[in-house]
Structures are given as C-alpha cells and as structure tokens.
C-alpha cells in the first residue's frame, strides 16, 4: 500500500500538539490535548486501511471499497472519546468546585518521599521494618547490647514482694 | 508418613477451638500428634537398624515432576524421634508454663503444632523441593512463635530478623537445589545420592548455595545473631525450635549432603571455618551472659557450630560422634531451657546476678539442671560425655581442629558451671534466697525426663551406637564405637584437660570478665544486619524518590520519551516503503493545512473557549478527511460527536475561569515543545512506514460477501459493528455506561442513595402543566429567544424521527445505532439549550440511567437470544414476518442489537446534559442564594426568581445558537469569578 504523506503529516501535527497540551497542568488543557491525540489516532487507524469509496454493497464495487474494519474500529473509538471527554470534564468541574482551579497537582505522598530521599531519611519515622529505632530512644536494659532482656518484664511476679531485686 | 503430617495439620486446625474449650489443658490432647510421630518411629527401629529405608511417594505436581516423596533412613529416623518426642514433652510442659489467662494461647497452640508438622516434613521429605517448602514453613511458623507478644517491640524485631535471615538463606538454598536437580534430572534426594551426576563447575556453586541456607538456619557464623535475639519467644519455643528442632534442620541438611558432597572443593573449608568460629565465639559470649536464657542461647550457637563441623567432616567416626552429639544436645539443651522456663515463671527472674539459693527451694529442678548441665559439660557416664569422647577420638589425626574443638569443650564446661551456679547456688549472707512459687509435676516432668534420658542413653552408648551406625557407615567403617567408659591415653588426657580447664576458667571468672569487658568483637552480626537493613530502606526511599516524583507531566514525559526512543529507534532500522504518495486528492491537502493550523493555534490559545473551538475545528476537519478517505459512517459520527463535545465543553466552561491559569512552567516549556515535536515526527514516520510495510491482503477483504449472506446488510461497516465484531461493540457500550455513571456520580451529590441522575424531582413550577414553553422559570427574559424556543420545539420530533430512520437504515446505508443515537442526543441538547432544564425534562421524561440500562439489556439480550435459538452468541438471523396491512417485513435480528446501542448513546448524552447541564444550573442557583453554600441540599424553588433577577448567569447557551460560543464565554467569566468569590 502506498503511504499518504499528507495524512501522515496531519497525524503527526495532531500528535505533536496533543502531546504538548497533555504535558500541561491544567486539566482542561490536558483534555483538549487528549481530544487532539484521539483525532490523530483515529486518522492513524484509518490510514492502516486502504482508501476508496464508501463500503456499501450495491453502491460501490468490492474492489473499490475502503477498508471497513478500520472504520468500524474508529467508529467505536469516536463515541468512546465522547464518553471520556464528558468524564474528564466532570472531573475538571469537580476539581474546580473543591479547590477553585482545575490544575493537576503533584501527589503529596510522593513529594513527601522525595523530600525524605533528599534528606537521606528512611521511609517512615521508623526503622527496622516498621519498628522503631533500635535500640529504643530510652536505651535498653544495661549498656551491653548482648545483655538485652529479650523478654521484657511486665509479666514478672510483680505481685510478690522481693520478686525483683 | 503422610498420615502423620495430616495428623499434625488436623491438630493445628483444631487447636484454637480446643484451647477455647479447655484452656491450657488443651495442650495435652495436642501432644498426641508429635507423640504419635515418636511412636511411629519407634515401631520402625528394627527396619532402621537393618539399614533399610521406609519410603512413601504420592504424586503432587506431576506437571513439574514434584512428588510428595517421603523417605526415612537412619538420619531422618533419628530426627523424627527427636522432633516428635521433644515436641510432645514441650507441649505437656506448656500446660503449666502458661498462665490460664495468657492472651493468644489458641493461636500459639495452633502455630506450635503446625511447626511440629512442618519440621516433620523437613526430615521426612525425600524430594528436595518438598523439603524446601517445609523448610520455609518452619521459618514462617518460627516467626509467628517468636512474635508471640506482638505488642512488644523486641519481640517483633527479633521475629523479623529471624524470618529475614532464615528465609533469605532458604531462597539461596533453593537456587542450589534447582541447580542440583536440573543437573541430576530428578529432585529425589535418594536418586541423586544413589547416582550422583558427574561433577562440574556448577557443583561447587550449588553446594555453597545450599550450605548458605543450611548454615543460616542453624545460626552459624556470620548469621548467629538471630538466635540469641529469638529468645524473645516464650521458653517452650526456645526449647523446641531453638534447641531441639528448627536449628537442627541446618545440621540435618549438612548431614544429609555430606556422604555425597563432602569431597567437593569448597565444602570442608566452608564447614570448618564457619563452624569453628561459631564454636569459639558462641562459647566465649555465653561466658559473660547474666540472663540464663541468653547464656543457653549462646551455648546453643556454639554447639550448633560443633555439630556442623562433626557431620560435615565426612569421616565415619566424626559422623558417629555427630549423631551422638545431635541426640545428646537435643536432650540436655531442651531440658535446660525448660528449667530456665521454670525458674523464670516460679522465681520471677532469670537474671543470675539476682537469683539466689534456689537449690534449696526447688531441689528437684536443681537436680534436673545439674544432670543436664553435666551432660553438656561432658561428665561420664552421660550421653554428652560419650559424644565428646567420640569427637576427640575422631579428630585425633587433625591437631589444629582438635585444639580448636578442645578449646570449645573448655568453654562449654565453663559456661555449664556458670549456668548451674548462677541459677541455683546460694549467695553470701546479706542476700536472701529468692522467693519462689511451687513447681508442679507437669512442669518439671518433661525436663526431668529429658535429663534422665541423657543418662540412660549414655549408659546404653553401645546399643545406641549400633542403632545409629547406619548413617556413619555411609562414609566407611567405624573405627571407634560409642562407649561411656573413659578411653585411655591421649583421649582421656584431653578429656580431663577440658574439664579441668573449664573449671579453672570458671574459677577465674572475675579476671576473665575484666578481659571480656575490654575485648569487644571486631565484627558484630547484629550491627551488620542493622546496617544492611538500613541500607536497603535507604535505597528503597532513594529509588522511590528518584522514580516516583508525583508529577503527572513528568510521568507522561517519561512514557512519551520512551515512545520516541523505542519507536524512533525501531523506525531508523527500516524498512522504508519504496514509494511515498503525496496525496490522492488536492482537497485532502487543503483540509490538512487547515487542520494543522488549527491544531497549532489550539496549543497557543490562552482562553479556554478559543482552545475548545479550535480543537473542534480539528475534529470537523478530521471528519472531512474521513469523507475523502471513503468513510461516510465515520464522518457522520465524527461530526455529531464533535458537536456534542463542544456543547459539553461550553456547559462546563461557563463555570471555569475564562483563561488558563498563568503557567509557572516557563522553564519546562521548551522541553514540552521538543517532546511534542519529536512525538509528532516519530508518529508521522511510523504512519508512513506502517502503511508502506503492509503487504498481506487485509482480513477485511473477505467482509463484503459474508456481510450480505450472513449479516443480511449492505453497509459493511455497520454489519462489522453489529455482527462480525459485535463483541467489540458490546464492550464499548459497556464502557459508555460506565463513563456516564462516572459523570453522574461526580456531579450529583444531592442524594446519598443511588447516584444515578433521575428526572428533576423538584415540584413542577406553578402552572407548569399549562405552559407550552418551559424556559420561563429558569431563563432570564434578556436571554430568552422565543423564536429559537419555538423553532426547536417544532423541529424536535422531526429530528428524533430522522434519528430513528438513521438507526434502521444504517444496516444498508450510512447511519446506524451510534449515529442515530448522537442525532437524537443532539436534538435533546438543543432543547435544553433553548429552554433550560425543565424543557429537557419535558423532551425526555425518562431517567438517563434507565435508558442506559435498557440499552445494554437489549444489546446483551439480543446476543443471548441468538444463543438460545441454537446459534452462536450475537449471531444475526433474518426474520421475515408477514404483518397485516404492512405486508412482508425484512427484519434482521442484529437491528435489536443496534437499538440497544442507540439507547445507550442517547442515555449517555442525556446523562451528560442532566449532570453537567441541569444539575450545574441548579448548583449555580443554590450558590447565588444568600446564605447558602455550594452543596446545599435544600431545593432552590422559591428563591429561583430572585436569583434570576439578581443577574446570575443561568442559561447555558445564549439567545441563539450562532453566538452561543461568545455568549457563554462571558457567562463563564462571570460565574467563574462569582464562584471563586462565593467560596472565599
């Protein structure tokens, strides 16, 4: 099949502009970028099938028909895009309702980890697989780390006098 | 054997219920499980003495060649005895060890019995992979048992540490197993041992990998640190897991492999170096412990090192000494741990600087401890002595090793003495004897039984040695059989030297302590573990911080960059088409230029509305290109969808600020621009290359014929949608339903119940029944255009009829469910734009959700109906009913499928109009009422007129469709500002 340079260029321009808008922060700009991208994608899909006359039996001879499969795929894509657009717009509206703008902000949790990484800290305030720092801040029993009483005292015989020296 | 494992499993499953019912006495029935393993093993004593094996095998994962292969030989028989016997005794001990109100006892009992079963699996398994599974199960159960007090930090930390060390070792071991198994072609150890595959470079690596797993499980240097920390577990766990059973798994594995692989290059250096270091370091550390349990723990570490050296040495005498020591150690160490538990529970402490005079208060416990400790120190005629004699005899020809082991024996005697004196001896007068509570028989009996067993088996050294001889004979003939009679000559001298030296070391404990205080180990396993785990945590944070920046543009940028790189790189390699056509049609070029300019201007637009309209222009141009490509269906759908899109945009944009917010992203602007250009260029190149590379005839070349003969339609695209590729369409309308639901749930926050938008449930405005045009209550007079309203009312039904015509004719001409649905949706949109939300309700007095649901139901139902009549799902058939008056009807069943599609599309548009149109209108009205917030639930009926009079923007569109854009742009500005101010 001979490529069609004009259509290929149009697809490229749509993709390029779509990508530039997609990388923006404003959700409505991102959405417009997506619309451009889907237009480009639809054209790209269509390019995959051969051009011709409308694929209607009795009107067009079989040999001159354009590729119906690519068209069927694009047709569903068009309507899906409509649903997607409506959904993203509703999101933009909701974002505006809640925050007064429709900007996509950085994820605060991710930023927190980035800050921790810059300060050379650990994932949480803790260490030891979710445990507190070891030895604990108050120090363990005795100074020798080997002399830690690993079975701490609460269940000792506190009720009996002289149980503990 | 499988029955034994199943018995443990059942017991473990029942344990919580039993404990719930009988409290701690439930440990007695639970002890039956390990006791039956012990009894079963006793029954096979003769078989084992004759050197025969007991084998059972069941298919398990035949696809992978894994069998539930169980095999008992001398070595595993011995371990079954230990695991079963000591397990049963420790369970009996648990009855009195725990308080009646001990929390989590049911879980403890279940996990403990489960562990006994897993341990039994380890020693019974003949298949290496089965062994690995049981091995890791013991690690997991051990983790749960160590963390018996999950509320204590030390407990959790120790459990984590033990789990990480042993499972990591286990994973390394698995790699070794796989290497062995793949080279041998089987995972059955008995087969590998009978016909060892030819040695090669892999063998050394595999053996070292397996040793890593075995040594880490047995807490051999440099992974010894986890065992003392694991003493956070309750004492029964320490006695069973960390003295008798689990830590012996590593020793068992070394012993299992030694007959075949002891001669492999790295085997002996690894075993000797790590073993000896462990013997000496463990013994030295035990000498300075003040906690009795830790003293035993370090002693255990030391003796595990000794055991590894013995069974790994690969000589018959050493192996005999090894199995004797294995039994001896299990008996005396378990007994001593149980004694420590008794002291701890009945005297309240196990600090040997605090305890005083216990020998008088609990003489039987003291006697048990002395008996067991004497065995540990190697006093004749106890089993420990028998083993020690055998050791000294076995290594007589290897002076350096002999010296090291002798030093280990000296240390053992010293810490045995330290244990007994520290726990039971009296102190000088000002100190009084530690008060204690009475010790029950059930608590003492297991420990006493184990200690006495050490004595009995020591006296019976000869028969014991003969029974166990099957294992050492794998290495050759035995030169020195076991005996409790002290030998003469060198061995006697060395034995005496060990005892005297040990007692001397103990007597000199004050100066030795001073030396120990100054002499710190240069290498501490626990510190290394901490540094490592910290390092991993740090690395994880750094990696996450470096890759997860939390910025959407950054993520997208990376993805797109990869697209450019990968796709562009692939394109550079070609192949490229020989011939590139410019265009078949000059009109295509003109439309293309317009489209390109519009796209570029969209990027540059600063106002939202301008951007939307320019994007719409690209959409319309795309539609024209569809026409020129020969796709009228697509063009229709694209035109209609683009129009609906613009309407939706305008509905939302009236609420958002007119212009995009000022962008602080100036620095990254060039990056974005470059990335956009690069993606555009790559996609253009891809479009050219991909279309040029297409050689094979497309699958759709076969479509036209069947479209008529099977699909009964002339419009091939439509037949493709509703018949040939109907599954795609089905999925797609489902997506539409989901999207519509999503829109509604984002906008409607009025009801807590179903979020599905229903018809506006406000009471109809007064006199509504008699009003023909419904715009009055919602539109300001200035904005109303009666002409527009009337014209829309007049053409509405015609348009809807036309949409239905498109739906039905679509099978044979451009049109179909999608296009028809969009036309009907547009008709509704125009009604709404002209007359507001009450007009919309009058035009479509149905629930949008109902339309969506019915549509999906009709489509799916058509498919199922086709199946019920014997065809495939979604297969079309032709109905030609004869109707009175009308005549013969030509009806294809797939039209019903298309009707479903039509209804879903109408439902989607109606849902959008209700949500982003009517509901947003209502929110604006509520917002503009004084004293009400944004999300007031109160209906805004009475104040509506006042709000309208106050100049609120209310109409979504304008007075006429031509100027709708500009008008709502200004409206958008107004309401955006008002909205923002209203919130502050």
UniProtKB/TrEMBL annotation, chain A:
<dbReference type="InterPro" id="IPR039428">
    <property type="entry name" value="NUOK/Mnh_C1-like"/>
</dbReference>
<keyword id="KW-0812">Transmembrane</keyword>
<feature type="compositionally biased region" description="Basic and acidic residues">
    <location>
        <begin position="103"/>
        <end position="112"/>
    </location>
</feature>
<comment type="similarity">
    <text>Belongs to the CPA3 antiporters (TC 2.A.63) subunit C family.</text>
</comment>
<keyword id="KW-0472">Membrane</keyword>
<protein>
    <recommendedName>
        <fullName>Na(+)/H(+) antiporter subunit C</fullName>
    </recommendedName>
</protein>
<keyword id="KW-1003">Cell membrane</keyword>
<keyword id="KW-1133">Transmembrane helix</keyword>
<feature type="region of interest" description="Disordered">
    <location>
        <begin position="103"/>
        <end position="165"/>
    </location>
</feature>
<dbReference type="Pfam" id="PF00420">
    <property type="entry name" value="Oxidored_q2"/>
</dbReference>
<feature type="transmembrane region" description="Helical">
    <location>
        <begin position="69"/>
        <end position="93"/>
    </location>
</feature>
<dbReference type="InterPro" id="IPR050601">
    <property type="entry name" value="CPA3_antiporter_subunitC"/>
</dbReference>
<feature type="transmembrane region" description="Helical">
    <location>
        <begin position="6"/>
        <end position="23"/>
    </location>
</feature>
<feature type="transmembrane region" description="Helical">
    <location>
        <begin position="30"/>
        <end position="49"/>
    </location>
</feature>
From TrEMBL, chain B:
<dbReference type="InterPro" id="IPR025383">
    <property type="entry name" value="MrpA_C/MbhD"/>
</dbReference>
<feature type="transmembrane region" description="Helical">
    <location>
        <begin position="399"/>
        <end position="420"/>
    </location>
</feature>
<feature type="region of interest" description="Disordered">
    <location>
        <begin position="927"/>
        <end position="984"/>
    </location>
</feature>
<feature type="domain" description="MrpA C-terminal/MbhE">
    <location>
        <begin position="669"/>
        <end position="751"/>
    </location>
</feature>
<feature type="transmembrane region" description="Helical">
    <location>
        <begin position="555"/>
        <end position="574"/>
    </location>
</feature>
<dbReference type="InterPro" id="IPR046806">
    <property type="entry name" value="MrpA_C/MbhE"/>
</dbReference>
<keyword id="KW-0472">Membrane</keyword>
<keyword id="KW-0812">Transmembrane</keyword>
<feature type="transmembrane region" description="Helical">
    <location>
        <begin position="441"/>
        <end position="464"/>
    </location>
</feature>
<feature type="transmembrane region" description="Helical">
    <location>
        <begin position="77"/>
        <end position="98"/>
    </location>
</feature>
<dbReference type="InterPro" id="IPR001750">
    <property type="entry name" value="ND/Mrp_TM"/>
</dbReference>
<feature type="transmembrane region" description="Helical">
    <location>
        <begin position="159"/>
        <end position="181"/>
    </location>
</feature>
<feature type="transmembrane region" description="Helical">
    <location>
        <begin position="129"/>
        <end position="147"/>
    </location>
</feature>
<feature type="compositionally biased region" description="Polar residues">
    <location>
        <begin position="960"/>
        <end position="973"/>
    </location>
</feature>
<feature type="domain" description="NADH-Ubiquinone oxidoreductase (complex I) chain 5 N-terminal">
    <location>
        <begin position="63"/>
        <end position="108"/>
    </location>
</feature>
<dbReference type="InterPro" id="IPR050616">
    <property type="entry name" value="CPA3_Na-H_Antiporter_A"/>
</dbReference>
<keyword id="KW-1133">Transmembrane helix</keyword>
<keyword id="KW-0406">Ion transport</keyword>
<dbReference type="Pfam" id="PF20501">
    <property type="entry name" value="MbhE"/>
</dbReference>
<feature type="transmembrane region" description="Helical">
    <location>
        <begin position="673"/>
        <end position="693"/>
    </location>
</feature>
<feature type="transmembrane region" description="Helical">
    <location>
        <begin position="267"/>
        <end position="287"/>
    </location>
</feature>
<feature type="transmembrane region" description="Helical">
    <location>
        <begin position="239"/>
        <end position="261"/>
    </location>
</feature>
